């Protein structure tokens, strides 16, 4: 383990306060999930679960003292921590980053499916919530936007939430695995750059497209959003592997990530491109070796 991971492993109180405290801070809140993933990978899921439960108590107290709403924050914390705990546990148990990511994507897909079964009319449920959020923020609802855009977004909220949580958990797992790695950091990097979701999840893309074609547009699109998030991660792995293999100049990452911060349209096209690369790599290996394909 790294020096920071060793310190966190031997100082439980500091670890718990770090898990709860960083969740409330902008920019570093993913570190909270990373610590949970590292703990699950190195100390076991029971220790990580106990840390999370203690963290919930601290979180409730901090939010109560500040007068902020605690219920939504606790739900969000438990969701990310649960994903980080699951991924970290599987990573520690199997040593496979591929399998951990595959399981997390599969769980997100199942969550969207179950949400559609429990509350099939996502639009009716989420539209009032989104309207209230916009009013609370004092934002215009339709200025410069297509008609009924909010209703369309409400219909896709299951997929949007699952995809955003999945991306946060994947980043937390990547950071947590980097903390937990013992000695062979180069081997960990190679494993991350060989990420592959496997053909089973590629087949799930076809199921999502079939659902859209059969009229289950909202459910199918939600599934595709989740799967797209996973394949974007694989596309990034392919790109970074290629950069390492062919020794691209170091500034290439600025060219890649710059559009994500400068332009929403460019970012959208880039993400679609990365998703396409990920799907193609699943079908026709764009890298030399295959690992942990399920």
Number of strands: 0
Report the average pLDDT across residues: 87
Count of DSSP helices?
14
Largest sheet: none
Task: Name the assembly state.
Answer: single chain
Strand content: under 5%
Helix residue percentage: over 70%
Give the N-terminus to C-terminus distance in angstroms: 28 Å
Low-pLDDT ranges? 290-294
Shape: globular
Class per helix and strand makeup: mainly alpha
Order of helices and strands: HHHHHHHHHHHHHH
Radius of gyration: 20 Å
Question: Would you write up a description of this structure?
Answer:
The protein is mostly helical. It is 79% helix and 0% strand. It has 14 helices and no strands. The protein has helices at residues 3-10, 12-23, 30-43, 45-66, 71-94, 97-118, 122-137, 149-155, 157-180, 185-193, 199-213, 217-245, 252-262, 264-283. Helix 4 packs antiparallel against helix 5. It is globular. The protein starts with a helix and ends in an 11-residue tail after the last helix. The model is unreliable at 290-294 (pLDDT under 50).
Q: How would you summarize what this structure contains?
A:
The protein has 294 residues and is mainly alpha-helical. Helix content is 79%, strand content 0%. The chain has helices at 3-10, 12-23, 30-43, 45-66, 71-94, 97-118, 122-137, 149-155, 157-180, 185-193, 199-213, 217-245, 252-262, 264-283.
Indicate the topology.
Blueprint: H1 3-10, H2 12-23, H3 30-43, H4 45-66, H5 71-94, H6 97-118, H7 122-137, H8 149-155, H9 157-180, H10 185-193, H11 199-213, H12 217-245, H13 252-262, H14 264-283
């Amino acid at each position: 383990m790294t020096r920071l991971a060793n310190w966190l492993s031997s100082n439980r109180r500091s670890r718990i306060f770090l898990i709860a405290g960083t969740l409330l801070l902008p920019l570093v809140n993913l570190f909270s999930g990373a610590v949970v993933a590292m703990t699950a990978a190195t100390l076991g899921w029971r220790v990580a679960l106990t840390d999370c439960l203690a963290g919930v108590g601290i979180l409730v107290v901090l939010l109560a003292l500040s007068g902020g709403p605690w219920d939504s924050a606790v739900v969000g914390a438990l969701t990310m921590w649960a994903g980080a705990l699951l991924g970290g546990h599987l990573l520690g148990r199997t040593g496979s980053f591929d399998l951990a990511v595959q399981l997390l994507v599969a769980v997100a897909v199942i969550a969207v499916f179950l949400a559609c079964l429990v509350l099939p009319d996502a639009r009716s449920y989420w539209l009032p919530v989104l309207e209230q959020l916009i009013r609370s923020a004092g934002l215009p609802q339709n200025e410069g936007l297509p008609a009924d855009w909010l209703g369309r977004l409400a219909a896709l909220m299951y997929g949007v939430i699952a995809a955003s949580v999945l991306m946060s958990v994947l980043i937390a797992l990547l950071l947590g695995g980097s903390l937990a790695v013992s000695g062979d950091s180069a081997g960990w990097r190679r494993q991350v750059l060989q990420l592959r979701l496997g053909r089973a999840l590629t087949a799930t893309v076809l199921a999502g497209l079939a659902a859209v074609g059969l009229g289950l547009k909202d459910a199918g699109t939600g599934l595709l959003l989740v799967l797209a998030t996973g394949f974007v991660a694989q596309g990034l792995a392919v790109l970074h592997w290629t950069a390492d293999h062919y020794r691209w100049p170091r500034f290439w990452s600025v060219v890649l990530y710059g559009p994500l911060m400068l332009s929403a349209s460019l970012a959208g096209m880039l993400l679609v491109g990365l998703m396409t690369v990920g799907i193609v790599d699943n079908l026709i290996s764009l890298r030399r070796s295959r690992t942990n394909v399920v």
